[in-house]
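RECORD TYPE: inverse folding
INPUT: structure tokens
STRUCTURE:
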């Protein structure tokens, strides 16, 4: 993609993150789901979900390599980029060379990414200074690739590593200061989650520049509630993948049980 056009698309994607007009993303995991989301008139952008991409390859999210993620991202980009809609990629922790990772994503037409503050190999939380430095490296890589408007959704896993909501606020504010466009506070793999009161605190601390995962099912904040609170962005992570796989399983069970 022409760098000027790609940077303009990145700027457009950044502008979509508006607490007064929340961006809703339906995360994809292959070319087929990407084509579905990209084709919907109500879809303003397309986002990938690393958990689902890993699952389609029979591996755990934490074990997925950069090559495995990019092999699927290439197929997704081939579908999305020609539509003119922004594509943002879940790049996990950015892998060993975060600058090279960002530049390879940009070469595919990607205009934004999720970047986690964990060390995927060590399975530990990075220090605040290290995480901030990696965000700055990512943005420097984007600038060198002539896409300075590249939008980073900085994810913090501090709650999953024994931290408090105050720790999440400290990290999020530092990430925004370093140049991230939004912050995603992950509630942790064991269901710790983020409460409505905490979402409200995060929105106030980040001036609305918050990404929240919408969970499907009862007992979770609805899209309308999250919009009322004033979050800039709502994503669903592997939510649509799980719905699709449950439907597939149910249909298969109905088919196979017919012969019993």
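DESIGNED SEQUENCE:
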């Amino acid at each position: 993609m022409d760098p000027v056009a790609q940077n303009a698309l990145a700027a457009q994607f950044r502008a979509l993150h508006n607490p007064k007009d929340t961006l809703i993303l339906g995360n994809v995991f292959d070319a087929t789901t990407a084509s579905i989301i990209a084709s919907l008139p109500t879809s303003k952008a397309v986002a990938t979900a690393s958990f689902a991409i890993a699952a389609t390859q029979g591996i755990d999210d934490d074990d997925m390599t950069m090559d495995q993620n990019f092999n699927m991202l290439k197929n997704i980009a081939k579908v999305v980029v020609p539509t003119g809609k922004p594509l943002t990629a879940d790049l996990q922790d950015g892998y060993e060379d975060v600058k090279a990772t960002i530049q390879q994503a940009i070469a595919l037409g990607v205009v934004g990414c999720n970047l986690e503050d964990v060390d995927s190999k060590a399975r530990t939380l990075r220090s605040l200074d290290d995480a901030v430095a990696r965000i700055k490296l990512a943005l420097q890589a984007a600038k060198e690739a002539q896409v300075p408007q590249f939008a980073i959704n900085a994810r913090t896993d501090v709650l999953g590593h024994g931290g408090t909501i105050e720790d999440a606020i400290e990290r999020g504010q530092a990430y925004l200061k370093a140049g991230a466009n939004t912050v995603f506070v992950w509630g942790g793999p064991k269901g710790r989650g983020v409460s409505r009161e905490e979402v409200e605190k995060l929105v106030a601390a980040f001036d609305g520049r918050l990404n929240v995962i919408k969970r499907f099912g009862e007992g979770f904040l609805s899209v309308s509630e999250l919009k009322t609170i004033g979050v800039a962005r709502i994503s669903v992570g592997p939510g649509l993948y799980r719905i699709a796989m449950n439907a597939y399983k149910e249909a298969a069970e109905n088919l196979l049980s017919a012969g019993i």
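NOTES: The longest helix spans residues 239-257.
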